[in-house]
Design brief:
The chain contains 10 helices and 15 strands. The two termini are 48 Å apart. The protein folds into 2 domains: 303 residues, 3-Layer(aba) Sandwich (Aminopeptidase); 117 residues, Alpha-Beta Plaits (2-Layer Sandwich). Helix 2 packs across helix 4, helix 2 packs across helix 10 and helix 8 crosses helix 10. By secondary structure, the protein is of the alpha/beta class.
Length: 425
C-alpha cells in the first residue's frame, strides 16, 4: 500500500497552474488513499463531548484541504453549546473558474470513542469500529471528491466544504451560519452514511423535541387524604394522547421517548415528572398541525384536581427545532447521479442497485436547505455504505468510499460541462 500512496502523493504534487489530466485516478488507487486517510482520522477520539479530539480531527481535514488550494476559516458557535464551544466548524473554500457553487457537508464528531482497526483487516472489504461510517468515512469520501476535481477538471466550480464539530448533538450555535452557506449554493451534497444498500437520500423529515414538565404535589403515599396531585399519573394520560396524535398524519410521528420523575422511592407520591417528546414531520404544515395538537393536549390537567394550596401545572420547552428537507432536486440530475453510482459499482463487479429514497432522521443538510432558494440539487447519504451506526460494532464497506467518490466526481464534472455549454451564446 505504501507504494500506491507514494504514487498518489506524487500525483497530487502537480502544481495547479499546469495542464491537468482529464482522467480521474483509478478506483483502486483512490481506494488505497481513502483507507490511509480513514486510518489517520480513526486514530483521533472525536466524540461530541471531547472537543480537543474533535478539533484535532478538523485540523487534520484542514491539512488535507489546504494543499488543494482551499482557504480555511474556523467558525465558532453563536450560542453556548456546552463542551463543544471549544470546537469550531471547519469552513474550507476554493474559488473556481466557473460561476457555480458546490457545497459538501460532513461532521467530525462521533457518538463513541474509536476502536483500532486490526492489522489483519487493513485490506479487507469491511472495517468495524465506532465512527468509521458516521461520519469519518463520509469526510474521507468528500475529501477524495474535491481531490479528484482539482486534479482532473480544467474548469472548476467554487468548492466549499464544511465539517460540523457537533452534528450528533444537532450542531447547536451553527444553524444560522449553515442557512447562510446553503443560500449561496447551487448544489448541496451531504456525506452522511448511505441509506440501505447504498441508496442516496433526497428528502429528510424534520424534528422538534419537547421537554415537558408536570408539577403536582408530593405526599406520604400511605397517609394522603387527597392532598397529593400525582404528576406521574398525569404524564401517563398525556403519553397516551400524544402518542396517538401522529398516527392520523401519514409521514409524521410523535414518540414519547423518556420519562423521569422527581424520585425513585416507594411511599411517596410523585410530585413532578419530565417527559421527552420527539416529533417528526415531512412538511412545515405537518409541524404546525402537530404543534397545535400538542399545545391543546398540554393545555389542561386531566387527572384529579388538587385539594391543596398548590395548583398543578404543565409547561414545556423546545430543545431542538430542525426543519424538514423536502425533495427539491431536479429528477434528471438525480437519475444521472444514480446512473454514475451504479456504473461505478458495476465497474468493481459489485451487484448494487442504488436508488433515491426518503430518509427518516434529520441531519445538518436540513439546516442548510432552509434558505437554499437557488440550489437545483440537494442530496444526502452520499457517504459510504455500512451499518450499525452509533453502536460499538458499527461497520463500513471500505471500498464504497472510493467507488462513490469516483461516481460523484464524474457526475459533477459532466453536470458542470452541460451547464457551461448551456451558458455559452
Amino acid at each position: 500500500m505504501s507504494e500506491v500512496i507514494s504514487q498518489f502523493l506524487e500525483y497530487t504534487r502537480l502544481p495547479y497552474e499546469l495542464s491537468k489530466s482529464t482522467k480521474l485516478p483509478s478506483i483502486h488507487l483512490a481506494d488505497q488513499v481513502c483507507r490511509q486517510r480513514l486510518l489517520f482520522l480513526n486514530s483521533i477520539d472525536s466524540r461530541s463531548n471531547h472537543p480537543a479530539g474533535v478539533r484535532s480531527a478538523q485540523e487534520l481535514l484542514a491539512l488535507w484541504l489546504e494543499p488543494l488550494g482551499f482557504e480555511i476559516t474556523w467558525i465558532w458557535p453563536s450560542q453556548s453549546s456546552g463542551p463543544n464551544d471549544k470546537a469550531p466548524m471547519l469552513h474550507a473554500k476554493r474559488k473556481g473558474q466557473v460561476d457555480q457553487n458546490v457545497l459538501l457537508v460532513g461532521h467530525a464528531d462521533t457518538c463513541r470513542a474509536p476502536a483500532d482497526v486490526a492489522t489483519t483487516e487493513l485490506q479487507s472489504s469491511v472495517w468495524v469500529g465506532p465512527g468509521l461510517l458516521d461520519d469519518k468515512g463520509g469526510l474521507v469520501t468528500a475529501v477524495q471528491i474535491v481531490t479528484n476535481l482539482v486534479y482532473s477538471s480544467r474548469d472548476l466550480p467554487n468548492l466549499t466544504l464544511i465539517s460540523s464539530p457537533s452534528e450528533e448533538l444537532g450542531s447547536p450555535g451553527f444553524h444560522e451560519f449553515m442557512a447562510q452557506v446553503g443560500s449561496e449554493a447551487d448544489v448541496i451534497l451531504g456525506f452522511e452514511p448511505a441509506a440501505h444498500d447504498g441508496d442516496i437520500i433526497i428528502s429528510r423529515r424534520g424534528n422538534r423535541w419537547y421537554e415537558v414538565t408536570f408539577t403536582g404535589t408530593e405526599a406520604h403515599a400511605g397517609r394522603t387524604r387527597g392532598e397529593h396531585v400525582d404528576a406521574l399519573l398525569e404524564a401517563a394520560h398525556k403519553i397516551v394522547e400524544l402518542s396517538s396524535l401522529g398516527s392520523s398524519l401519514p409521514g409524521a410521528s410523535v414518540i414519547c421517548s423518556s420519562l423521569h420523575t422527581s424520585h425513585s422511592h416507594f411511599n411517596i407520591t410523585c410530585g413532578s415528572a419530565t417527559l421527552k417528546v420527539d416529533t417528526r414531520f415531512e412538511t412545515e404544515e405537518q409541524l404546525q398541525f402537530l404543534h397545535s395538537g400538542i399545545e391543546s393536549i398540554l393545555n389542561k390537567w386531566t387527572s384529579k384536581a388538587s385539594q391543596g394550596p398548590r395548583v398543578p401545572s404543565i409547561s414545556y420547552v423546545i430543545k431542538d427545532d430542525c426543519p424538514p428537507f423536502a425533495r427539491r432536486s431536479n429528477s434528471v440530475q438525480i437519475d444521472s447521479l444514480l446512473n454514475e453510482l451504479n456504473r461505478a459499482y458495476n465497474q468493481m463487479e459489485l451487484s448494487q442497485a442504488v436508488k433515491a429514497i426518503a430518509g427518516g432522521g434529520a441531519s445538518d443538510i436540513n439546516y442548510l436547505c432552509r434558505a437554499a432558494k437557488k440550489a437545483q440539487v440537494i442530496v444526502d447519504g452520499l457517504g459510504p455504505s455500512g451499518g450499525r451506526m452509533h453502536q460499538t460494532d458499527e461497520f463500513i464497506n471500505v471500498r464504497s468510499m472510493a467507488i462513490r467518490a469516483q461516481a460523484i466526481s464524474r457526475w459533477l464534472i459532466e453536470a458542470l460541462n452541460r451547464s457551461d455549454e448551456r451558458s455559452r451564446p
